[in-house]
Amino acid sequence: MASPHHRLKELGLTLPPAPKPMASYVPVRLVPLGGGRSLLFVAGQVPVVDGELKHVGRVPEEVDLEGAREAAKICALNILAQVDAAAGLDRVERLDKVEQVASLTGFVRSAAGFGEQPQVINAASDLLAEVLGEAGKHSRAAVGVAELPRGVSVEITAVFVVTKD
Amino acid sequence: MASPHHRLKELGLTLPPAPKPMASYVPVRLVPLGGGRSLLFVAGQVPVVDGELKHVGRVPEEVDLEGAREAAKICALNILAQVDAAAGLDRVERLDKVEQVASLTGFVRSAAGFGEQPQVINAASDLLAEVLGEAGKHSRAAVGVAELPRGVSVEITAVFVVTKD
Amino acid sequence: MASPHHRLKELGLTLPPAPKPMASYVPVRLVPLGGGRSLLFVAGQVPVVDGELKHVGRVPEEVDLEGAREAAKICALNILAQVDAAAGLDRVERLDKVEQVASLTGFVRSAAGFGEQPQVINAASDLLAEVLGEAGKHSRAAVGVAELPRGVSVEITAVFVVTKD
Predict the structure, then answer these.
(1) CATH architecture group of domain A4-163
(2) A109 contact partners, CB below 8 Å, separation of at least 6
(3) Whole-angstrom distance between the N-terminal and C-terminal Cα of chain B?
(4) Quick one: closest CA in C to B59, which residue?
(5) What is the model's pTM?
(6) Distance from the B10 Cα atom to the nearest Cα atom in chain A, whole angstroms
(7) CB-based contacts of B64: which residues, under 8 Å, 6+ apart?
(8) CATH number of C4-16+37-163
(9) How far apart are alpha carbons B110 and B133 in whole angstroms?
(10) Neighbours of A (≥3 Cβ pairs closer than 8 A)?
(11) Tens of pLDDT, residues C43-83
(12) Across the interface, do C145 and B142 touch by the CB < 8 Å criterion?
């Protein structure tokens, strides 16, 4: 299979700069497991593009299913950007150092009666599998929440396993 | 103490087939820690029985406390079924390979003013302790969310620690 | 840098006794990683002081931003108390054994349209960094939920990495 960076290119996607945290936290935390492997906890990513929030509103009332899926895809791209930028990883082709995506938790800002959170978060899950192949498949929870930071439609957090070599 | 499978039998419970994911993800992810031990991330389980969703609705408006507790118990059984079926574990008596349940996160689809999420998720927590003994005791969060996939009343995700031998 | 216990004193804070779980779970679970290091999963902590719930209500309708931030700070203190009391850690100056805070998940019981979850959970994040220094910085998700156990305004769960020596 092609490298993750090559796959991104084939998909017509560009890895954005890793978004800065919205508040008092760090975007990733690396927990060494020994043998050069680490758990990488990725902070909740929101649909921010070039510093601007996209897809603000409740689903599907204010943001429709397609908009919410686009938001989830942006979250996934930002997660990949965070992994790529993570301190402690080698500098070149860091996405090649992903051993697996252990878990993904997706929060969808849901209007009353909306139960299609899986379809929304699938847009993120599918992207990870397209870019990382088998390594990108993950366990997952998708839930519908009342509100999200600054009103965004989707927030996604993840735990990766990465290697040094 | 009796084996987990024996305990299930004593409790009059049958381990169901591991439910298939509702979307683009895998039901479990195994993260080796060295020494034959692994973290096992279990995807969010919902109250599905034989492929059919049970206990759909908001608690306690549409599904009462007892119904929600039954939903939580089904989620816990499905979690055990996923652990039992997990690829990478030995084929025989896999539930015997549970070193501990590290954490459980329970989401209850809650009507306004409902604050008994702990009582709901207790039905899952108690089952894990009954079946797995000390190993089944876990750290936990229980929260009330607006909506859940396809309207189910409860969704539970878990992180286990399992061994190979 | 001063020891965590010394820093607490400087900040005018007293570590409370570790709150007892509200239901069928244990407050912490220690997952050994080898080399004397462990993941420590901390159960969801709520703003309980001396056994009494503080800051009950929806934010900002019933509990204002400052009240919610105070609730988040109490949750963080209770998390530190749980870590300090964790079985399996050395008895003296256990907070010195924190290698890092891997992740924090903050749930804020949010009224419709409230999107300042990050500002609320910052009160917890800032406290951890003030008390633990670099080790206290963490990845994080902050979400707004409909309801929380017994109506509290904030619930926070955490994963720490601790050492034996």
Answers:
(1) 2-Layer Sandwich (3.30)
(2) A57, A58, A59, A144, A145, A146, A147, A148, A151, A152, A153, A154
(3) 18
(4) C147
(5) 0.96
(6) 31
(7) none
(8) 3.30.1330.40
(9) 30
(10) B, C
(11) 999 999 999 999 999 999 999 999 999 999 999 999 999 99
(12) no
